[in-house]
Amino acid sequence: MAVERTLSIIKPDATRRNLTGKINAKFEDGGLRIVAQKRVQLSQAQAEQFYGVHRERPFFKDLVSFMISGPVVLQVLEGENAIARNREIMGATNPANAAEGTIRKEFAESIEANSVHGSDAPETAAQEIAFFFAGIELVG
Ligand code: ADP
Ligand code: MG
């Protein structure tokens, strides 16, 4: 196992319901360290670029509208196997399929408004962290 970093986003459905602290407790209790964090309002262009891999999917337009419907919290999480570990803590994309105790099981409103984003591989984690954070913001 190696120490990794992954990009996490607390999505607008969760910031709207004041769930940032409860979600952060899930990460910290699950062995991840929040090494960078900022609350921002994404622009449409930023959301479209961030989710560019899903551009051809039928839900793309709705997903972008949702992601700019309110503030998000951008985070870098660090720990052993952080990319896979974070995805375990988040739970399945569709909350109906998410395991007990996961963030999406407890907090997600729907398959779209599912409270959190987490990178899915080392390459995407590095790209997504660099998309939102400057090196000077990552102090470990
Ligand atoms: P994950 O966030 O678990 O990595 P994906 O990368 O497949 O999932 O999808 C990105 C995001 O797009 C999801 O988190 C969710 O917000 C949204 N999404 C995925 N599938 C659907 C769907 N069938 N309908 C609506 N929104 C979806
Ligand atoms: Mg994904």
From TrEMBL:
Taxonomic superkingdom: Bacteria
Cofactor(s) needed for function: Mg(2+)
The record's annotation in Pfam families points to: NDK
Write out the annotated subcellular location.
Cytoplasm
Give the range the annotation lists for the signal sequence.
none
Residues bound to ATP are: K11, F59, R87, T93, R104, N114
Which transformation does this protein catalyse, written as a reaction? a 2'-deoxyribonucleoside 5'-diphosphate + ATP = a 2'-deoxyribonucleoside 5'-triphosphate + ADP; a ribonucleoside 5'-diphosphate + ATP = a ribonucleoside 5'-triphosphate + ADP
UniProt keywords (A-Z) are:
ATP-binding, Cytoplasm, Kinase, Magnesium, Metal-binding, Nucleotide metabolism, Nucleotide-binding, Phosphoprotein, Transferase
Does Phosphoprotein appear among the keywords? yes
Q: Which residues participate directly in catalysis?
A: H117
Domain Nucleoside diphosphate kinase-like residue range list: 3-140
Look up the EC number in the record and give it.
2.7.4.6
HAMAP family, per database record: NDP_kinase (MF_00451)
As for what it does, the entry says:
Major role in the synthesis of nucleoside triphosphates other than ATP. The ATP gamma phosphate is transferred to the NDP beta phosphate via a ping-pong mechanism, using a phosphorylated active-site intermediate.
The name under which this protein is listed is Nucleoside diphosphate kinase
Task: Give the species this sequence originates from.
Answer: Azospirillum isscasi
